[in-house]
């Protein structure tokens, strides 16, 4: 735990290189079974959220992969909800870097599979992000299936359906069908 606290404190370092290195270390800890649960319990999701905003392609991809990996464990899914990780994925899904956007949309799809994660994804803008991607066609050859799958999973949450319709999920689904 002291090591984790040290890594987290380095995220407040004045220079970007130190922030990226510390964030990448935490992201890597989230990618392995042995360290994933303890790292999440110590606040690693907060580091991932900061790392997602530093505009570094490889680190952004690590964030998306780490959040996907986190969703495998029920205890970690609760952490993802509690620490509001969904906005980081929404942000990353709109990246101009193809690999980042692809990883983020895949992460959204993986997280949307789990019922407790659906409402936070909808509440934090996942649907408008998918609509934007469907309409602008960016990276579509790589993300079409994941966009459709995410919309399908999210639509399984009855309380979120009215918001999804308001946010043009039907439009996105129609555009995805046309692009398929």
Strands, total number: 0
Please identify the structural class as seen in this structure: mainly alpha
Overall pLDDT metric: 91
* Topology order in helix (H) and strand (E) letters: HHHHHHHHHHHHH
Q: Low-confidence parts lasting 5 or more residues at pLDDT below 50?
A: none
Shape, per Cα inertia axes:
globular
Work out the strand percent. Answer: under 5%
Number of helical runs?
A: 13
Largest sheet: none
Q: What is the CA-based Rg, rounded? A: 16 Å
Intertermini distance: 47 Å
| Residue share in helix | over 70%
What is the topology?
Elements: H1 2-10, H2 16-30, H3 33-41, H4 44-51, H5 57-70, H6 74-82, H7 86-93, H8 98-112, H9 115-123, H10 126-136, H11 140-155, H12 161-166, H13 169-179
Description:
- The chain is mainly α and 180 residues long.
- Helices cover 78% and strands 0% of the residues.
- The model has no long low-confidence stretch (mean pLDDT 91).
Salient structural properties:
180 residues; mainly alpha; 13 helices
